[in-house]
Amino acid sequence: MRLNYKVIFNLLGLLLIFNGLFMWLCLPFSMYYHEDVRPIFISGAITAGVGLFVWLVTRKTRNKELKKRDGFLVVSLGWILMSVFGTLPFLLSGHIDNFTDAFFETVSGYTTTGASILNNIEALPYGLLFWRSTTQWVGGMGIIVLALAILPTLGIGGMQLFAAEASGVTHDKLKPKIKDTASRLWSIYLGLTILETVILMFGGMTFYDALSHSFTTMASGGFSPKNNSVAYYDSPFIQYTIIVFMIIAGTNFSLLYFFFKGKFKKIFANEEFRVYILIIVVVSLVTTVIVFSQTWNEFEKAFRDALFQVVSIISSTGFATADYTTWTSLVSFIFLLLMLSGASAGSTSGGIKVIRFTLLLKNSFLAVKRQLHPSAVMPVRISGRAVKEDTMFNVMAFVILYLTIFVFGVFILTFTGNDIVTSLGAVATCQGNIGPGLGTVGPVNNFAHLNDISKWTLSIVMILGRLELFTILVLLTPNYWRGL
Known about the structure:
The chain has 484 residues and is an all-alpha fold.
């Protein structure tokens, strides 16, 4: 089966057009704060112009159906191209003066990682900082899903794109048609962003700060326009509000759809959601005890800091209100496990996902039982439903591949001169799309001091993690390109 190159490049052209338009959405802030609008305006013009040219050249094609094989290439190239052109505002403004750092920052945005090379975030213009937040908001649901809400009106089929972009083991169809699914997901995403913005403004944030933080909260991104992240706002109301929305962002969006439809039984019947909440509760209580016994601050403050960091890491958001690397080695180890875990499948979070760990744990217990009862048929069940053997095989293959890439990434970082704690934390946080890590890339530091090899390695790891590994790696197999 040959690749449909015209449709592939037609879609990529449209994605670049959208990317350019999103850049221009940042211009009102530049004008309001009397900043130089040229870097963002020119960047948007170049990006949209290239996209328009590619779209016009490839728009006339008889076969507009996108096959699964095409979908892998569109998703992979789409994220890479968006990241390349997304560097333009940083480079043209001069606030990031080299492509490596600009690409790292932009990839961190689109993959909703939140790792940064900026030493003084507040020194950047408001318009540029809002572009930084926008990359995460767009990347949060996936630029592909955004496109799917629009492209069907142009007569382009996109079912395979959703299959390639969908996060996790399975995705519950909210509606039979993909365009309906995409538009409903986007409506929920947009609605929650607006709701959080209003609540944060009620808590004392300016409109700009509230919108910026809402963009990056719902995306599980973690970029903040403040050097001290959410710790800048010494407000329990603001911090608890962000905690709630981080939990929501780490929840399967199918369940959010059921919530708004009033189908609450389906939410609590979902085993992954119950395990997700249980992990947050248990780890938060353990961390609270450790923090309280170490600092002897008031209990509510210890609880709030612990809960905030636990939710921030498991949801892969990456906001910070405290330096958790000072909370004993045990806490650092627990948080490293949370970085690998991630939140729910079908959410904007990264990581391996709770459902995969749940399935592996259940399969391990059943393996022991099968030794005692070798003739018994004991399928792994999740939410009361039996899981197919090929699904379990794919889960195990994914986890093994995820950990293999993790080990390989740590090897490269340590080989280039980074200490082992920093290397473990950097790869775990970038592969899980979280942001702050451990060691010298903890919440009070950044990634600016890393060498270029480390930054490029982590950039690749971020993209692999965001696209759930297989979407990118399938392109590296000879069978994919055979016969082309």
